[in-house]
Amino acid sequence: MVTSSLFKPLLLVATLGLAACGAPEGSVTRDGILDPYESGNRKVHEFNRGLDRAVVRPAGRGFTTVVPDVVEDGIGNFATNLGMPSVMVNGLLQGDLETAGLAFSRLFINTIFGFGGLMDVATAFEIPEARTDFGETLYVWGVAEGPYIELPFIGPSTQRHTVGRVVDLFTNPLSYTLDSPEKYWGPAANIGQRLSDRGRYSDTVDSILYESSDSYAQLRLIYLQNRRFQLGQEDPSQEIDPFALETEGF
Question: Which of 6, 145, 159, 181 is 20 to 30 A from residue 230's alpha carbon, by CA?
Fold first, then answer.
């Protein structure tokens, strides 16, 4: 159950998001993409590429080389399981009782029978995945997507999704109930999961970031198409699988 003390900051930030997510005056839509901040976004993109080249890529490759696959899978399962309370909260905020129920079921089963979430027993029991976030909650509430933004360290986003990312820092009740050091397990597992993904899919990510003719435009298109598909705005046939892309583009 979401307490009133949690609702207040969520509603406050969502209200600010409603004002922030409007398109700026004079913005231009190109190819169905609203990107009035392209010049600044490209600078952030180059910063993120430099950070990836110097730190994230070598760290991800090293992580995958050193850590056994079964441990990598366990870290990913653990991170996903710790995120289920946030999925439950967002499901309730969206009025989506099915998603909230699936998240609760997966949290309960994987925590009890999956050694705290290290094993994904719920999938073996044929319980569907449950994924949502506050960006989707804002979409359900009618907040516009807003312009495309590339965030430092994080990557592709939109104004609506950016507001959602901020609010999701507070939608997981575990962040309020766990003491130190347990409350840091989730962020640590998320970092491990990201490093694992970067290492495992290194060739594909490299082809997008370093081998395409315009990595900014390619990454922007992949993100927007897949995010809109996730929200049910796009025909499923329009979803882009980044792991099936050719080196030089689509």
Answer: 6
